[in-house]
Amino acid sequence: MTRRLRQIFRGLLPSGRRRPGGWRSEGQACDAIEIARKRVMVTGTVFVVAFGIISYRLIDLGVLRDPSADAARAKTTTAQPLPTGHRADIVDRNGTVLATSIRSWSIYADPTIVGDPARTARILKHIFPSLNERALTVKLSQNTRFVWVRRQASPAAYQQVLRFGLAGVRARPELRRIYPQRTLVASIVGSIDVDNKGTAGIEAAMDTRLRTDTHLLQLAIDLRAQTASRRILLQSIKYWRALGGAAMIMDVRTGEIRVMVSLPDYVPDTSNAASQDLQFNRNTLGVYEFGSVFKILNTAMALEYGVTHPHEMFRVDEPLEIGRFRIRDTHPILKPIDTGMILIKSSNIGSAMIAQRIGGVRQKSFLRRADMLSKLRLELPEAGTPLYPRNWRPTNTLNISFGYGIAVTPVHLVAAVAGIVNDGHMVAPTLLQRANGLPLWRRQLVSRTTSRVLRHLMRRAVLEGTGKSADAKGYLVGGKTGTAEKAARGGYQRNALLSSFIAAFPMNRPRYVLLVSLDEPKGNKASNGYATAGVVAAPTAREIIERVAPMLGLRPRTKPESDADTGVWTGADRSNRFRGNQQSIRVAQDTGPSRSGQSRYRLPRNTLATPGDNR
Fold first, then answer.
1. Is 434 helix (H, G, I), strand (E, B) or coil?
2. Is 292 a catalytic residue?
3. 490: which residues sit within 8 A by CB, 6+ positions away?
4. How many other C-beta atoms can be found within 10 angstroms of the C-beta atom of residue 609?
């Protein structure tokens, strides 16, 4: 036994020779042991190298890595090509998807391979009912190698094509644009054609950006507020049997448009089949004479130029005649009223008298500064251009003072009124979310004093004037009604009205401006046949504000209105305190605002309070 063990272990010595006191091994056993030893050494070396690399990588990422080097490396890395038909997603301000792309199949055929064109066309007609079988048969009989059968078909339809195994009928993958919200934002988002090109709305305006960028496009629209506003406006249109309507809410500080509803609307997936009336965006493309809502601008420019003051009295009991034209009020006012009451009670005669003092040159200059005379600047291709007289005659000046003779888009009007109530700062309207909370641009439209006066008067117009139905509880709504007869050949249609109401809320510290407009509403028994803005548009605005304001982050007030709220007083002394000390105020004789941009008149200290927080 001992001799046998000596023979086995003798080969462990590298030289094969026996050392003093050792053994010697030869033959196959020696070769096998040598191979095993080498394999163990190689395996161990591999493990050592692998663990060394992993350890170095961990130290490099955790300790030695420089973030700036990663950024530089990312810039130099070649971007991967985007897939065919790529378009970035469009989402609302809260991340809800408004437009996205999914995989689809475009079916085509090679007529030279199609065996029976009539049978193939009949089967394809069964899969795609909208196809014309006769026209498809003719296409499949042509001497050509390629004809389209159906672009961007669903995967289920493609599976049916495969099941029939039609010779010469093939498909290629494409990306199909879908709009999950359908009609809710159709006039804003727009649509594309089968060749992946934007045809309307944001899809057209931002076409290059959507096709070349991988980052989603975020709009300022709040889909929750959009949904609620559309539902309320639709109910109002049906109740008053109007032809259509529009509603819009804009943030006066950032210019972000949170709501933009235009009715009737359409489903973007079938935009090619929709009529032009359905695709017409009333907020951005339509230009209208808005009537008495323009009295806000007329009063603002009068106070800014210093041609009157809030307490100057005017007699408006007789029509104002200029040449062969006569201006009268719908509801005659038989006693003298002051400048503020002209706006509150919506007197055409008083507004025209104030406009005579302003003059056409200054009126036009103010409207130009308010962007009311230039084409709409917004992220949509559907942008309207205002209509105004080329020769600004005295009669035009008077008509424009109460909203006739000039036609603008709703966005024009909302942006101008927002500038008046926002301490005089006008900002750029936009449909894109402002990530930094700052507007694209801002300019001083009126002085802070003029802004405070107008906020006061707009609030009183809701409490005492034609906009009483718009007083949303807890939100200090201020605004102005406007009922305009629609222009027709040779004059105006007395029974075709555009009834509008523009509101700002909360008036102690305005945050949003809302415009509601109904096209040709019809009166009923409940309204005694009236379809004016105070009956039709103002209640609609109140419903929208009460429903939407909490969604926009505004909580209703619970404490009573007091002197600290926009200078509006509750109780019997409101009218007396508003008059203030008339003897201390005189009409300025200058031709414009002072160099500092402030009007030359001054209000008594007790007429207006400093705006406070909305609580």
1. coil
2. yes
3. none
4. 18
